[in-house]
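Summary of Year 1 activities. Much of the first year was spent building the evaluation harness for sequence design. The harness presents a backbone, in tokenized form, and records the residue chosen at every position. We chose the following record to illustrate the format because it has been used consistently in internal testing since the harness was completed.
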């Protein structure tokens, strides 16, 4: 008998046209477009599917501080959010994660959530590699110029 998580992962694989499976650690790890590694697994209560990525190392200094500030601003956006940002000091990586109630998921819904999550991870990787502290779609508008000057 296959458990619900395994059914979802196999179904996601069918939906994406990829052979996906749950490994011996109870997780499924995908390398996406050669940029990001995204892991899915069940939480300890077996009620939520967790999606996570240690997306990219952030160099130390003011840049890292500004990336993390923008990450906090992003975390304050209203739901629905495709990801929650964090920081892993062990390896200086920006992390993204999300928790999805298993009872609302089927392969198609998981594919939609996974796609949005993957897009968010890639947008943060691209931004940081380009020297920006947040993806363009999240970057604050430039401050207004005094007296309306342009």
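For this record, the design step produced the sequence shown next.
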């Amino acid at each position: 008998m296959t458990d619900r998580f395994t059914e979802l992962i196999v179904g996601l694989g069918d939906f994406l046209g990829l052979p996906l499976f749950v490994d011996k650690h109870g997780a499924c790890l995908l390398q996406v477009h050669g940029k990001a590694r995204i892991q899915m697994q069940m939480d300890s209560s077996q009620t939520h599917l967790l999606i996570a990525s240690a997306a990219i190392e952030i160099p130390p200094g003011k840049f890292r501080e500004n990336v993390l500030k923008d990450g906090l601003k992003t975390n304050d956006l209203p739901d629905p959010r495709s990801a929650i940002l964090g920081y892993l000091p062990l390896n200086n990586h920006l992390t993204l994660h999300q928790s999805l109630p298993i009872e609302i998921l089927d392969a198609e819904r998981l594919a939609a959530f996974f796609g949005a999550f993957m897009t968010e991870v890639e947008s943060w990787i691209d931004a940081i590699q380009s020297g920006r502290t947040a993806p363009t779609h999240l970057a604050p508008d430039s401050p207004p110029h005094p007296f309306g000057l342009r």
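Confidence is low (pLDDT under 50) at residues 141-145. Quantitative recovery figures across the full test set are reported in Table 2.
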